[in-house]
Input
Amino acid sequence: MTGTPSRSSSSANGPAARRSDASRSAILAAARERFAADGYERATIRAIAKDARIDPSMVMRYFGSKDGLFAAAVTLDLRMPDMSQVPRTEVGRALTGHFLDVWEANEELTAVLRVAVTNKAGAERLQGIFREQVVPVAQQVCPDPEQVTARAGLCAAQLLGLALTRYVVRLPPVVALAREEIVAWLGPTVQRYLTAPSP
Output
């Protein structure tokens, strides 16, 4: 028997639900910008709510806390390439180039890095990204399975050091480097970390 939709099913897709989705999206967009610009400590729920043109109590209702909002706002997919499809001698350059492309297209990464250096929640988020997305890349090319995490960590140190100086501190000589120059300088170093024999 068919009939009119029930109150619960119609309300789930009705104006109130659409307003709720729009409010959440506005809060998340404002939070990403604030965390990127101000870092975790200085970004406030009140400022984020003002940017989103919403009452601060609604931010807490949707996300519970600033930590909860940060976790929701900076869910990141680095879209790491399949290194099994890259010539072994080109892995370092490919990874460095990919890292630059993703970083320059995604301000959330800057937010995570800013927060990670001063806040436990940010550090844990960055550690999770490393564990879930960077280590598997190293597993594809590392010659010694026992060294995968150490080699992945060295790659992360190199690439995050670049990110810190280029996108957060904005050190002029690093900012001035063209993408091709960075790939040419860092690619061989990342390559060595991933595939060279142990020193």
Q: What stands out?
A: The chain has a mean pLDDT of 85. The radius of gyration is 21 Å.
